[in-house]
Design brief:
- Helix 3 packs antiparallel against helix 4 and helix 3 runs antiparallel to helix 7.
- Helix content is 41%, strand content 18%.
- Among the domains are: 101 residues, Immunoglobulin-like, CATH 2.60.40; 99 residues, no CATH class.
- The N and C termini lie far apart (130 Å).
């Protein structure tokens, strides 16, 4: 028994001797980001930041933060708020010194909760700032122009994004108004949608831009047939062509052209004759489109 006690006694003494050192290693030093140390007077706001690495040190316990209120003769804590990198403390100077002098922002102790749940105390020391009185002039004081600094120009505001947004809204509003008013204004200005012959003329021009061969002329002939059928309201041929002119008397000047075109179409589709040439197809389409536009 004595031998066992003799063995563990030195170890117990060593553990007791190292316990204070372990407590000292547990202490935490919180870094701070301080304001500039000079150039303040009554009403100015100073900002201190307590920087805490969340992954390494943990988070500040909200209960350990100072409460907003008056701290001494010179400072009032307006806000103690959490920010991504720690805590922001906003102090306002609430008194006027009679002459330039230095004063200390109050020191404080905060509690940090480590990621493993343990708590650590951290002391934040005071920070010295220089304050000056507010200048005032008596009735007999004369201010020299050379002693007055010019006013600072305000920083220009970038309005490019706002202008682009306003222009986009204006363009959308104008387009919407145009869509709404177009049906009412079109008759007054003589605007009307293109009829079947106007659309056929444009289609023929586009078709012949790709080439002038038998296939292209056949496509153009079918396009003219579709326009005639749409205008007549039924399939049009030589035996019922008078239905077209009875319904649309304004097409009478093109009677001979239409009858000749239908005869050539019958020969091309049901016989072995080639389709009419490009110039004739375009001429018939143009004549019908012009009569349609002037009616």
């Amino acid at each position: 028994m004595r031998t066992f006690m003799a063995r563990i006694a030195p170890r117990a003494l060593l553990a007791a001797a190292l316990a204070p050192l372990a407590g000292a290693a547990w202490a935490l030093s919180v870094e701070t980001a301080e304001p500039r140390p000079f150039g303040y007077t009554v009403g100015d706001v100073l900002e201190r930041r307590l920087l805490v690495d969340r992954a390494r040190d943990g988070t500040v316990d909200p209960a350990s933060l100072p409460r907003p209120g008056r701290y001494g003769r010179w400072f009032q804590l307006r806000e103690a708020a959490f920010v991504p990198d720690g805590v922001r403390l906003a102090y306002q100077i609430v008194n006027v010194p009679l002459q330039p002098q230095q004063e200390n922002l109050p020191s404080l102790r905060v509690r940090v909760i480590a990621p493993d749940g343990h708590t650590q105390e951290a002391d934040v020391g005071p920070f010295t700032v220089a304050m000056t009185p507010v200048a005032h002039f008596g009735p007999d004081d004369v201010i020299q122009a050379d002693n007055v600094r010019p006013d600072l120009d305000p920083r220009p505001i970038d309005t490019a994004s706002r202008r682009e947004r306003v222009l986009a809204y204006a363009a959308a509003l104008i387009a919407l108004a145009a869509v709404q008013l177009a049906p009412a204004l079109a008759p007054r200005f003589g605007w009307r949608p293109a009829g079947p012959f106007g659309r056929a003329r444009r289609a023929l021009h586009r078709s012949f831009l790709r080439g002038d061969d038998v296939a292209a002329r056949r496509r153009a002939l079918r396009c003219l047939h579709q326009a005639l059928d749409e205008a007549a309201g039924r399939t049009l041929a030589l035996d019922n062509v008078e239905l077209l002119f009875g319904t649309h008397p304004w097409l009478a000047p093109a009677r001979a052209s239409v009858q000749s075109l239908l005869a050539d179409s019958r020969a091309a589709f049901f016989g072995e004759a080639p389709p009419p040439p490009r110039e004739r197809l375009l001429a018939v389409a143009g004549q019908l489109a012009d009569l349609e536009r002037r009616r």
